[in-house]
Amino acid sequence: MSAAPITLIEAVTQALAHELRNDDSVVLLGEDIGINGGVFRATAGLQKTFGDQRVLDTPLDETTIAGLAVGMATQGMKPIAEVQFDGFVYPMLDHLISHAARLRNRTRGRMTCPMVLRVPWGGGIRAPEHHSEANEALFTNVPGLRVVAASSPQRAYGLLLAAIRDPDPVIFLEPKRIYRQYKELVPDDGEALPLDVCYVLRDGADVTIVTWGAQVKEALEAAEELAKDGIGAEVIDVATLRPFDFDSVAESVAKTGRCVIVQEAPRSAGFGAEIAAQLAEKSMFDLVAPVERVTSYDVPVPLFRLEMKYLPSTAKIVAAAKRTLAAS
């Protein structure tokens, strides 16, 4: 076990080191991840420990990084690629969509693509344009990609281990706003957490709050505020966005009759809309009030002073939950 509680970014480093130490096929690649330890220092010290053949500094070329990762994965390696910021991922999409996601189907199962793309993701750090985007819906619409979002140090460690060991490509979203926001004890025991399932973080009987990534913190804070008014909010961390464990959400909504979906991404065509659509299709008669969505706005992330007003907040989640209660 860690001697002391660690942050989410330290949990990522711990998981990467564990797999490098225990699996010779694991290799890391990305811009400045070796000598400098990455822009967020997720790989700090790993090149010194494991060598420059296992932790590779690449050119500043996201297209090449994605292509190298796909090629390595087809040849028996388990590449873990890092893109410096979420908004830099777009040059990688051709390799991810056209090759990584299709390889199993294209070869009728004869080949797979066991790669992980680590994406520092989301807003809240007052960074310039292209550094604060919540673009998960780009990936959840691609068959063949698994999309995972960390939300705490413990889940970052366990889910990243599972992602590295998965035989298919995984987009691993790391909410940079909470990289160093709080700490947890995280045993370095190599125990992976299950993928493709939601995590119920708090029980409640009055309203279901569904979210992922950094917004889990605000959702739990909102549940605490609602409890002061005698309202029991059940909080669900989706964790794996694709494939999506709708059954866990449906089970909760069957109990509460109400649902608030929280996403950091812009409102239109976000992953929250998919959850709402499935609730309309499969859980209509369990709902006693319209589904509420708490989202960011359909504009680019505003710079600096306005950024936190753009993002969903605890107060906005509380207000949405109370609207669902007033509607029934």
TrEMBL record:
A GO molecular function held by the record:
oxidoreductase activity
Taking every annotated instance into account, which residue ranges of this chain make up the domain Transketolase-like pyrimidine-binding? 6-181
Q: Which residues form a coiled coil?
A: none
Keywords (alphabetical) are:
Oxidoreductase, Pyruvate, Thiamine pyrophosphate
* Any single Pfam family the record assigns to this protein: Transket_pyr
Gene3D superfamilies for this protein:
3.40.50.920, 3.40.50.970
Cofactor(s) this protein requires: thiamine diphosphate
Q: Which InterPro entries match?
A: THDP-binding, Transketo_C/PFOR_II, Transketolase-like_Pyr-bd, Transketolase_C
Function of the molecule: The branched-chain alpha-keto dehydrogenase complex catalyzes the overall conversion of alpha-keto acids to acyl-CoA and CO(2). It contains multiple copies of three enzymatic components: branched-chain alpha-keto acid decarboxylase (E1), lipoamide acyltransferase (E2) and lipoamide dehydrogenase (E3).
Specify the protein name: 2-oxoisovalerate dehydrogenase subunit beta
Q: Species name for this entry?
A: Chiayiivirga flava
